[in-house]
Design a protein that fits this description.
The protein is of the alpha+beta class. Helix content is 23%, strand content 16%.
Length: 62
């Protein structure tokens, strides 16, 4: 899955600037994003896999 300039998820660690591994998947996700960009990417991923963006729930600690 890629944005306009670079991928957001890749099986190749070298494709990403700052990456975190998705547990036991062999896939990497870009972690060098703002909170707003993270939400946008998560919503897009949900839609790609057939879920509604409204299925996303974000919980925060205070």
């Amino acid at each position: 899955m890629a944005g306009r300039k670079r991928p957001f998820v890749s099986s190749d660690l070298a494709d990403l600037t700052t990456a975190g591994q998705i547990a036991s998947s062999g896939m990497w996700v870009e972690t060098n994003l703002s909170a707003e960009d993270t939400l946008k990417k998560c919503r897009k991923m949900l839609e790609v896999f057939g879920y509604s963006a409204s299925d996303l729930e974000v919980l925060t600690k205070q």
